[in-house]
């Protein structure tokens, strides 16, 4: 993205003094944008770029009088904001409008065991199945013993 934006500025030649371009022209807080423009004076070496919507920065001016740099979108309320530049030596300036969009909502992804209040269903804490089978087996054994005992008494 940065390489193609810089290439476009170089191919177009020196831009008209006072022009400022931000690509893309809107973004969310934290996004990176490319800011480019031009100064017409030979003695300009840097341009100061300021505005509420972007992190303030400086850009070095190339031999053809243009500059291009990257900056991040500031954490401000959504809306349109003025972004401007000033050529340090000549005082030439320009501005444009940049739109800050709503930031994306980040939802926490669920992880771990389901917290349903399901008792022993959440992990292998107690081996309930073998315990239940042992109790049923014991009850069946006792019942069988008593049945055999009562039949034996009845015959005697």
From TrEMBL:
The chain crosses the membrane at residues 128-148. Keywords: Membrane, Transmembrane, Transmembrane helix. It comes from the Bacteria. One of its GO terms (biological process) is carbohydrate metabolic process. InterPro entries: Ig-like_fold. Residues 15-39 are annotated as: Disordered. This is Uncharacterized protein. The lineage of its organism: Bacteria, Bacillati, Actinomycetota, Actinomycetes, Streptosporangiales.
